[in-house]
Amino acid sequence: MVQSYDPAARTGVVLSEPDRTPLALRPGSLDDSLFRTLHTGQRIVFDVEEDDGQRYAARVRIGSEGY
Prior knowledge:
five-stranded mixed sheet
């Protein structure tokens, strides 16, 4: 779920399911997506990547976990 998103900077924070851990959106996460912007509360599916011990949301897709 989208917690926050800044369309000008193309940055934001999403919450992972089911524990609602906040993850920063990886730069370019929407590049190959149907999305051009995200809205607070919007349900999305994403992959989690780790880089230097930091976890990020990447490759955003439409939908919600389990579907």
